[in-house]
UniProtKB/TrEMBL annotation:
Keywords: Isomerase, RNA-binding. Responsible for synthesis of pseudouridine from uracil-516 in 16S ribosomal RNA. Belongs to the pseudouridine synthase RsuA family. It catalyses: uridine(516) in 16S rRNA = pseudouridine(516) in 16S rRNA. This is Pseudouridine synthase. Gene3D superfamilies: Alpha-L RNA-binding motif (3.30.70.1560), Pseudouridine synthase I, catalytic domain, N-terminal subdomain (3.30.70.580), RNA-binding S4 domain (3.10.290.10). One of its GO terms (biological process) is enzyme-directed rRNA pseudouridine synthesis. Its EC number is 5.4.99.-. InterPro entries: PsdUridine_s_RsuA/RluB/E/F_cat (IPR042092), PsdUridine_synth_cat_dom_sf (IPR020103), PsdUridine_synth_RsuA/RluA (IPR006145), PsdUridine_synth_RsuA/RluB/E/F (IPR000748), PsdUridine_synth_RsuA/RluB_CS (IPR018496), RsuA_PseudoU_synthase (IPR050343), S4_RNA-bd (IPR002942), S4_RNA-bd_sf (IPR036986). Residues 1-58 form the RNA-binding S4 domain. GO terms for molecular function: 16S rRNA pseudouridine(516) synthase activity; RNA binding. It comes from the Bacteria.
Amino acid sequence: MRVDRFLSNLPRFNRQQVRLLLVERRVTVDGVAVSDPHHEVREFSCVCVDDEVLQVGKPARYFMLHKPQGCVSATADPVHPTVLDLLDEPDPSELHIAGRLDFNTTGLMLITNDGQWSRRLTQPQTKLPKVYLVQTEQDITPEYAVTFAAGLYFAFEDLTTQPAELELLGPRTARLSIIEGRYHQVKRMFGHFDNKVIGLHRERMGPLVLDDALAPGEYRALTDNEIRRV
Ligand code: URA
């Protein structure tokens, strides 16, 4: 929310007072004096007037998990373990998953409490590639790469997928890079050729690569540098 709105929502300041506070540069957000009324205040921002803290700002949290097979990409499930069960962190209900994976898909999963950050990673408009290693039941022919690059029509959503890149690594193994995350997208793309995906592993989301020091089920906090790169 805009800083002027944040301040005038407090019972102690009216709009005129807020304008003055800003003009007099008495407001700081994360330690920096702010005079622009449009300056954004988030739940993570520390907001002060003079030396008084009006909002402490809660910590933004970012984790990279190596998702194992057999767990659900959801915050709760009545039957199966969820990826959040693998995290030993306070207030797990405040966390969400940036880009779900199917029950048996393995690999990079990003978990955070920062909705803006996760949207940047997952929205097709930002065009960040999601890279998967794919193993199939049948051979992958050269035709696949051409079809995936042109886009595939998904009748259910009534859309054509964005161009995707396929690199053949073996007769039944490939690396696929897509910029969307439609429901079961990779399986449906190979399903177009009646070729079943029998192994799926996410290696990368945008600039973030799964850390090979993480065994399936393990996780770590992202570094400041990794967080900033998204
Ligand atoms: N596409 C799929 O079909 N499944 C996944 O888990 C991820 C992408």
